[in-house]
Amino acid sequence: MVEAKAERRVPYLLDFYPLQGEEHTRIHPFFQHLQEGRLTTTRCTACGEVLWQPRVVCPHCNADEMEWVDLPQVGEIFAFTSVQAGAPKGMEEDLPFVVGIVTLKGTDMQILARIEGDEESLEIGQPVRVTVERLADGRVWFRFRTVEA
Amino acid sequence: MVEAKAERRVPYLLDFYPLQGEEHTRIHPFFQHLQEGRLTTTRCTACGEVLWQPRVVCPHCNADEMEWVDLPQVGEIFAFTSVQAGAPKGMEEDLPFVVGIVTLKGTDMQILARIEGDEESLEIGQPVRVTVERLADGRVWFRFRTVEA
Amino acid sequence: MVGTGLTHWGVRKATLKELAQEAGKALFDDVDNLPKAEVDSLFVGTALAERLAFQSYVAPMVAEQLGIHPTRMLARTELACVSGQLAMKMAYMAIATGLSDIAAVVGVEKMNLPDMAETQASLAAILDREWEGVAGMTAPPYFAMVAQRHMYEYGTTREQLGLVSVKNHRFSATNPYAHFPKEVSLDQVLNSPMVSTPLRLLDSSGITDGAAAVMLAGEDRAREFTDTPVYIEGAGQAATGNLTVNLPSLTEWPHMRRAVRDALSMAGVTIQDMDLAEVHDCFSISEIIEYEELGLAEKGKGGQFIEEGQSEIGGQLPMNTRGGLLGCGHPLGATGVAQVVEVVQQFTGQVPQERYVGGTWALTHNLSGNANNHSVLVLHRDS
Amino acid sequence: MVGTGLTHWGVRKATLKELAQEAGKALFDDVDNLPKAEVDSLFVGTALAERLAFQSYVAPMVAEQLGIHPTRMLARTELACVSGQLAMKMAYMAIATGLSDIAAVVGVEKMNLPDMAETQASLAAILDREWEGVAGMTAPPYFAMVAQRHMYEYGTTREQLGLVSVKNHRFSATNPYAHFPKEVSLDQVLNSPMVSTPLRLLDSSGITDGAAAVMLAGEDRAREFTDTPVYIEGAGQAATGNLTVNLPSLTEWPHMRRAVRDALSMAGVTIQDMDLAEVHDCFSISEIIEYEELGLAEKGKGGQFIEEGQSEIGGQLPMNTRGGLLGCGHPLGATGVAQVVEVVQQFTGQVPQERYVGGTWALTHNLSGNANNHSVLVLHRDS
Ligand SMILES: [Zn+2]
Ligand SMILES: [Zn+2]
Description:
The complex is a heterotetramer, with 2 copies of chain A and 2 copies of chain C.
Chain A: H1 28-35, E1 40-44, E2 50-51, E3 66-70, E4 74-83, E5 97-104, E6 110-116, E7 127-134, E8 140-146
Parallel strand pairs in A: 6-8
Antiparallel strand pairs in A: 1-2, 1-3, 4-5, 4-7, 5-6, 7-8
Chain C: E1 3-6, H1 16-30, E2 41-45, H2 49-52, H3 58-66, E3 73-78, H4 83-96, E4 102-109, H5 116-124, H6 139-154, H7 158-172, H8 186-190, E5 194-196, E6 199-200, E7 210-217, H9 219-222, E8 230-239, H10 254-267, E9 276-278, H11 284-293, H12 302-307, H13 324-328, H14 332-347, E10 361-368, E11 373-381
Helix pairs in contact in C: 1-3, 4-14, 7-11
The complex binds zinc ion (2 copies).
């Protein structure tokens, strides 16, 4: 788990994290699941398509009956970079940080997120696991961290 | 003069007041003049056109040699409204406030600004005078206030 | 146009993306024999997504939400309250030039934020932020001054303004997609909270989340998808300003007259040929002035026009039968598209009997900012 | 195109409005026998004015800054780094459909703020803010991963990337309007500060303020204003995505191939007919992949292409003779317009001898976001 920073209230104009409650988004279960440590997405009950990110309408068959499915918690790094300069407002103190694309185990689904861990030792193909990032205001997000192969 | 509010640093995304220094704008003399209590604008030295707002290129003749001219400090109200709800971020405490269009004396030039004074007593045609608004960070802006006819 | 789609409008518990998905579903359900792969282009009208949704580059995002992969054109248009009509016009041009065969248009806006003062600050950036927004100017104070001058110059009454809202709410009461689907009385309008003197809450269009969508195809393919295609036959636009104090007048909008004239002339018709019109009633005073600039009422007599019921069904020209911006709300980028949706649904008999007009010719009008820009489409269904 | 205008690019001590005025002056000075009143339409390409200038609804503002009053069309296009080319394309369509006779196009962006972290936050909103920006993603990390994969899959070398920057800075050294008007050595590139591994500062286009403008007229009127009109003969665009993880590949851009193919085919020419090209070198890796997707280098051999000097003057196809985004900087909305300006100035012999190519056929290419959208124009001067 990634610890919350000290609370700060930024304008919505500069707040990168999605608003997560039922009053803000129809995919609020995603965030509830993430609170529980589960990485999930939607599956179309009509055509079976599983998509990233979660949807309310299926782009393939136009149905709008979705069910929530768990995604693998582990995967391997497909690409990554260490950001050394040019952080967006609110992320200046994070520099340097690593962002990467992870292929989830047993799927061809990829997810982009921060990757925790020693940048020097990262490489393409390295195994990683989801970890939950908790914000001071109660919201959650996710990152990956390296694990033993 | 309108007193400055307590200092607050807002993101540029929510900062309504123009950046006023030479490093930010080619019309920085406008703000310097306003610091001195003068309301000025540019006059095209090629075709003589006087325009609001100040320019760096004349829209009429395409020349870019401008000179600064003083505008009348007084004028009369052409239209006004008292804003009672829906203030932009940072202006919530100003509610209710009056905004109006003022025709500058002896010209057909109009300027839009806040109007200080008892809203109930305002009327079309009422005489007003420019007053300088000073921000805590040293920047300036302008409003009008009612004066005796 | 070969199909339409609407989301529910209001203070929606949904994101910009989710609104786009809903509009896409409604659209593809309506044109159910059109495979998504045949949609070669997408035009997205949205005004303030960069600020209100903290999201730029909305066009490819909407494409992904709809599940289409544009192979000919992909564009986002922004022109404040005209953003949606501009997307329509760009799609029209793309098809007319052969740069697209089948194009989707989506107008979408998410306006309600947890901190509405941030929404208002963003709306203040539609006017010149440095010289007008800084004074606290947004649309309501601008149109309030327009109303003040119209009352001062022509004797227009507070009651006449209110009647516009009464009419448009009567129409929106029959529109399940509207933000405000219920009737209001003149008393209710005149006693609603003051927003910016002399305009009250019920003189003002709402701050609304919503989306609207239309599918366009060229004449050669339109009948594959519908028996009753509706065509864009005329387009006109004119602008001046930009600062409020540099407008020719607060109460006369000569550039609207020009846009109307050009659009009608391109279509080879006159205003008398129109069966209905959707005009930009962002505030009650706007519709009053629009009666005048459409050439239906003499200058200064717009108030009398509504009193006489001339913009009602059965009057000289029924206007805003979907409920207008006053009744439906005004999600900036969606409005211009939703007006076209109403016209198509009127022409094809898809509206409730209470507001049915039908017909074969219609005009849609949007203005933006401090009314410094006016844009008009003329629509036609082969009879 | 019958005329062009550029401002100086860089970290400018000027506002968005002032940049627009400067571009307007340069444009009208260039087309000095065209009265402003005859310009009936204006198309403004700008990406992030809502955030970086706290100003929406930029089109009428730019009209006022230029002193024109559009009576036919007024529009603002936004498509991130393609915003400017999209404005060009909309003007082309307006003229082709007769909705405009003479149209100005202005691309403008003010990007440098006192707090550059706010600029970066706004740039992060070009990618999907909720699912990618939130992770700290902006363009550099995206193209850094593209570079990592291209090196991993094809053995492209750090030095090959650097050579793109060396070439483009050699060109920008002769361009007084460029943000970075001086040559750099390969050593300087390889030792410049790291931005996002493996990309360094000199692999990256700058954060630049600037504007560019073009005047368009139809074939029937163009020769009133110039003896050497340049025409848009082809246009292509294709998009996919939108999320980075939903792209078909990081290192292959099949939708770029499609946009190139369509634009060339519309013009009835092939890539071999081109005399020069302006391609979107937002990062050094971008130009390498573009060699491949233009069909000039085999897949994976883009690095070899620059090593062999094939994109230099005298090579297979000279590219980015104005200095590209690497040498000129990248004011988002201005770039696509400035590329067209370079082509026109090349065709009409208005560039310094050191970078003169001339010719009669050229291609301009822009990509946007995470390269999920590619747009191409083919330009021609009657010989
Ligand atoms: Zn499905
Ligand atoms: Zn002049």
